[in-house]
């Protein structure tokens, strides 16, 4: 099993900073933004983006939370039982612009589940998607609005995202049968 | 987890996993839209051979919150009154395409039989079997204690170092049995208090301390006191001279309640016999968790149903 590093800590930091600027640009400021991370790593990325936005636009506080999508997945009967995670949405999302944050966008099925989960929470004005890595191979008509890095991969490969909060270091690597 | 029949065979990790999952289920309770789609398309039958209000409704609410289709079966008014056996009743229901069975039965071991005899091939959840076990009640009790003690930082924690006293009709109590195993597995020290006639016969098989002097045990300031219901329907002999005597010696009277530390939780699985095993002062106090236990029962049952019905082995 070979693993090659494709993003270092500084690359991740730059990508998140750019995504934060893009979110602010598209939203014309931080008004009505709610940033929701998909557990586990999406939640930490969501907090980082909220912190960066607060540093770009001093005085703004963007509500940030976690949105567990386990109960909305379409593969609950085919996989070993999945443990759920906490959902913590600090504000009512009606009328807001929700930015979903996840680490890797792959089949799109997690995002599909997340959209259903958002719908059960309220009716936001719009929902956007930010991901650190887009590795392709979509199985549903879903795309990200903000992408840290496009990493074309084969199905046989794995993308390992390490974050300081969960793994002690910031690093993204591709593992597996890279020709 | 394939079935939930007993708390005795739950490992600590499994039990904590169920409690954590229950916390996630609880976050839906204060939403406008309370349902989750996890069990959509699955059918669950609640097979109740014994009367029950709160357990049956709690399971039904839990099933509906997870979007399952629910069939309620009560033995009264069914073919059981024509003499149909448990095996035939269960096979008839599963032949109609039921995906899981929740069973309450007066015979100890009924849930185990249903799960292990090869009669049916779906997950079985024990909702109380005779005087044997009531595992979801123990899980909701453990959840309630953990939540009160650890608050928002309860995830991942057990009940290590906590002292829980269970008082009353231990011998007939499936709640006491399930709690004895589960609370001990989670690290709590359990003491059971009852008149000698209402303590179980095989005392050495329980991982708990058995006492008969309630006042001596309460003087040690336990973290929680769980009062059990006096089960008149299971008492075919005279186990104590009179209700009045029972209440004076083993009831949580106003006088005993006043001596309890303010941080001792007062628990009761319901339905309460007010004035017999528990006084109203205790039942309605801020230390009382009786209403929370009912609310938490739904979350715990959601977690159990999710666990037995999802996964590739299910």
UniProtKB/TrEMBL annotation, chain A:
Keyword Transcription regulation included in the entry's annotation: yes
InterPro entries: PRTase-like, PRTase_dom, PyrR, PyrR_bifunctional
Domain Phosphoribosyltransferase: 8-152
Keywords for this protein: Transcription, Transcription regulation
Pfam families: Pribosyltran (PF00156)
Family: Belongs to the purine/pyrimidine phosphoribosyltransferase family. PyrR subfamily.
Protein name, UniProt field: Unannotated protein
UniProtKB/TrEMBL annotation, chain B:
EC number(s) stated in the UniProt entry for this protein: 2.1.3.2
InterPro entries per UniProt: Asp/Orn_carbamoyltranf_P-bd, Asp/Orn_carbamoylTrfase, Asp/Orn_carbamoylTrfase_sf, Asp_carbamoyltransf, Asp_carbamoyltransf_Asp/Orn-bd
Pfam families according to UniProt: OTCace, OTCace_N
A GO BP annotation: 'de novo' UMP biosynthetic process
Domain Aspartate/ornithine carbamoyltransferase Asp/Orn-binding: 160-307
Keyword Secreted: no
Pathway: Pyrimidine metabolism; UMP biosynthesis via de novo pathway; (S)-dihydroorotate from bicarbonate: step 2/3
Gene Ontology terms: cellular component: cytosol
Signal peptide stretch: none
Molecular function via GO: amino acid binding; aspartate carbamoyltransferase activity
Record bears the keyword Cell division: no
Gene3D superfamilies the UniProt entry points to: Aspartate/ornithine carbamoyltransferase
UniProt keywords, alphabetically: Pyrimidine biosynthesis, Transferase
Record domain Aspartate/ornithine carbamoyltransferase carbamoyl-P binding: where: 2-146
Reaction(s) catalysed by this chain's protein: carbamoyl phosphate + L-aspartate = N-carbamoyl-L-aspartate + phosphate + H(+)
Family: Belongs to the aspartate/ornithine carbamoyltransferase superfamily. ATCase family.
Function: Catalyzes the condensation of carbamoyl phosphate and aspartate to form carbamoyl aspartate and inorganic phosphate, the committed step in the de novo pyrimidine nucleotide biosynthesis pathway.
Protein name stated in the entry: aspartate carbamoyltransferase
Organism of this sequence: freshwater metagenome
């Amino acid at each position: 099993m070979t693993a090659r590093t494709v993003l270092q800590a500084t690359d991740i930091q730059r990508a998140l900073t750019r995504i934060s600027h893009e979110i602010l640009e598209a939203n014309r400021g931080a008004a009505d933004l709610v940033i929701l991370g998909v557990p586990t790593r999406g939640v930490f990325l969501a907090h980082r983006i909220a912190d960066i936005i607060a540093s770009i636009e001093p005085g703004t506080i963007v509500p940030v939370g976690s949105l567990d999508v386990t109960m909305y997945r379409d593969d609950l009967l085919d996989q070993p039982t999945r443990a759920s995670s906490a959902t913590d949405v600090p504000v009512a999302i009606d009328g807001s612009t929700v930015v979903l944050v996840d680490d890797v966008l792959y089949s799109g099925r997690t995002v599909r589940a997340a959209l259903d989960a958002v719908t059960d929470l309220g009716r936001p004005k719009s929902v956007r998607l930010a991901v650190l890595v887009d590795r392709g191979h979509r199985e549903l008509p879903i795309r990200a609005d903000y992408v840290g890095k496009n990493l074309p991969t084969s199905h046989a490969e794995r993308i390992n995202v390490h974050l300081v909060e969960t793994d002690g270091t910031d690093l993204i690597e591709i593992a597996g049968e890279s020709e | 987890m394939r079935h939930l029949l007993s708390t005795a065979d739950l490992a600590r990790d499994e039990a904590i996993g169920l409690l954590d999952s229950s916390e996630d289920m609880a976050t839906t309770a204060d939403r406008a839209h309370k349902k989750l789609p996890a069990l959509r398309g699955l059918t669950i039958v609640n097979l109740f051979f014994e009367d029950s209000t709160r357990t049956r409704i709690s399971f039904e609410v839990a099933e509906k919150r997870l979007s399952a289709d629910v069939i309620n079966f009560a033995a009264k008014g069914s073919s059981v009154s024509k003499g149909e056996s448990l095996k035939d009743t269960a096979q008839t229901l599963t032949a109609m395409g039921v995906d899981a069975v929740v069973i309450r039965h007066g015979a100890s071991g009924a849930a185990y039989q249903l799960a292990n005899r090869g009669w049916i091939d779906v997950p079985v959840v024990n909702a109380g079997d005779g005087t044997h076990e009531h595992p979801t009640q123990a899980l909701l009790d453990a959840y309630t204690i953990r939540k009160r003690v650890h608050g928002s930082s309860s995830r991942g924690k057990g009940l290590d170092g906590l002292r829980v006293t269970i008082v009353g009709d231990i011998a007939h109590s499936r709640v006491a049995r399930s709690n004895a195993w589960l609370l001990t597995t989670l690290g709590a020290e359990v003491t059971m208090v009852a008149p000698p006639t209402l303590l179980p016969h095989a005392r050495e098989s329980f991982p708990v301390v058995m006492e008969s002097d309630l006042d001596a045990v309460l003087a040690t300031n336990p973290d929680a006191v769980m009062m059990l219901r006096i089960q008149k329907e299971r008492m075919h002999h005279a186990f104590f001279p009179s209700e009045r005597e029972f209440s004076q010696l083993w009831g949580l009277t106003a006088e005993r309640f006043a001596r309890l530390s303010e941080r001792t939780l007062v628990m009761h699985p319901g339905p309460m016999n007010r004035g017999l095993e528990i006084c109203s002062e205790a039942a309605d106090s801020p230390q009382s968790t009786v209403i929370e236990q009912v609310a938490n029962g739904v979350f715990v049952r959601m977690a159990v149903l999710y666990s037995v019905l999802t996964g590739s082995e299910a």
